[in-house]
Design goal:
Layout lengths: L38 H14 L3 E5 L2 E11 L20 E3 L2 H14 L5 E6 L34
Parallel strand pairs: 2-3
Antiparallel strand pairs: 1-2, 2-4
Length: 157
């Protein structure tokens, strides 16, 4: 047993929001929901995802994409699963929802009252990882579905 004193969690400086609730985004059909995760989950989710998720290197037009990716979703009893084709030389394999992704999914579904059956997860390891300007491909998305982005970790500058 150690006599080391307990450390209290680091106090984080408040983040300056880039966008606020009520800001008009895109074509006006987008909106921002803040603090969607309960504080305890928000505190641990990023670190848990780094180890739980089966990260893959993805290639697009013969080059390595500068971030890690993973695809998770609902796998039915008969083995069927949702498909989302995105521009890549080869799509990462779909895995069932990992425990932390399932918890995040539950919170999103409650907040939006909308089912989530598939997620594309992207891990930006450092300031050198990025995504180029793009538009989401919606060929495999049911019309009227929400496309949701949950962002965890440090705010980009």
């Amino acid at each position: 047993m150690s006599n080391t004193p307990r450390q209290t969690p680091r106090q984080r400086p408040p983040r300056t929001p880039i966008l606020g609730v009520g800001d008009v985004l895109g074509a006006g059909d987008s909106y921002l929901v803040t603090d969607i995760l309960p504080p305890k989950l928000a505190e641990v989710a990023f670190e848990k995802l780094k180890t739980e998720v089966k990260w893959q290197t993805m290639y697009h037009r013969g080059g390595e994409v500068p971030r890690l990716v993973a695809v998770e979703g609902e796998v039915a009893e008969d083995g069927s699963f949702p498909v989302y084709r995105h521009p890549a030389d080869e799509s990462p394999p779909l895995s069932p929802f990992s425990p932390t992704v399932a918890l995040i999914r539950d919170q999103v579904q409650k907040a939006l009252n909308h089912p989530v059956n598939h997620v594309l997860i992207q891990f930006y390891r450092s300031g050198k990882d990025y995504i180029s300007e793009h538009s989401d491909k919606t060929i495999d998305v049911v019309r009227g579905s929400n496309i949701v982005n949950v962002s965890l970790g440090a705010q980009r500058r």
